[in-house]
Design a protein that fits this description.
This protein has helices at 7-30, 35-40, 50-70, 90-118, 146-153, 155-167, 173-201, 209-212, 216-240; strands spanning 73-74, 77-78. With 242 residues, the chain is mostly helical. A hairpin with a 2-residue loop joins strand 1 and strand 2. Helix 1 runs antiparallel to helix 6 and helix 3 (50-70) packs parallel to helix 6. The two termini are 36 Å apart. The model is unreliable at 74-81 (pLDDT under 50).
Length: 242
């Protein structure tokens, strides 16, 4: 009879399987809400939202982590034979995805929740997609149920934080200097270009009202600020990792 997995491995399996199920369920249920009809009519669809991009990358990292949990190595070789050599690529692939997903998800949560609590009109769209400052903007704002909200805007960041701090080794200074900085810069430029392109096709409407309500110069400052937040949060979390 095979021996049961060690407690740490059991904890990893529970974390990754539960988190993946919650995030996938949250996105699936999102497509069933009335808000989906509004999103589907826009260029870029759900992928114009940084939240959904972060969710997808986090799901990929979490599912890869689950595969690593289920097929652990023994004396440096996986249970499967050399025919499954691709399994050796899972660990470095997860590390690459983690350096993208963790600062991205933390940035999303850090921006979303304060605005949701303190300036809701800046983060939630109205039904017409008009600027939130418009006198013609209808009420109420488009909201999603709290359990779904948590699965999209809290679970990704919390999952990656727990996974990294408890089960992963910290990144080296070289990985932080080149990998962390490079990815933050590239992703910031990519998303700024992508969301501006989407707005161009959507009549100047951005996925987030705080972008729609501001001119390009302010939006540019927001993009730069978000990129700096992503890198600094990643650097700080890696620094406190023991």
């Amino acid at each position: 009879m095979a021996s049961p997995p060690p407690p740490s491995r059991t904890a990893r399996i529970l974390l990754h399987s539960a988190a993946a199920a919650i995030m996938i369920s949250g996105y699936h249920n999102l497509t069933k809400l009335p808000i989906n009809a509004f999103i589907s009519t826009q260029y870029g669809g759900h992928l114009q939202y940084l939240t959904i991009q972060g969710l997808f990358v986090t799901c990929a990292a979490t599912l890869i982590s689950l595969l690593i949990d289920l097929f652990p190595s023994v004396n440096g070789e996986y249970y499967f034979s050399s025919r499954s050599f691709w399994l050796f690529a899972l660990k470095p692939l997860k590390r690459i995805l983690l350096i993208i997903a963790m600062p991205l998800s933390i940035t999303i949560s850090s921006i979303y929740w304060p605005l949701l609590l303190l300036a809701t009109q800046l983060i939630l769209q109205n039904g017409s997609g008009e600027p939130s400052s418009s006198p013609h903007a209808p009420q109420p704002l488009l909201r999603i149920p709290l359990p779904m909200d948590l699965s999209l805007h809290a679970v990704p960041a919390l999952t990656l934080l727990v996974d990294f701090l408890l089960f992963e080794k910290k990144y080296t200074r070289k990985e932080i200097r080149y990998g962390g900085t490079g990815i933050s810069v590239v992703y910031t430029i990519f998303y700024a270009w992508w969301v501006e392109r989407c707005a161009g096709f959507n009549g100047g409407r951005f996925p987030y009202p705080f972008l729609t309500d501001n001119p390009f110069e302010i939006r540019l400052a927001i993009y730069v600020g978000a990129g700096m937040l992503a890198f600094s949060s990643f650097w700080l979390i890696n620094r406190v990792h023991t």
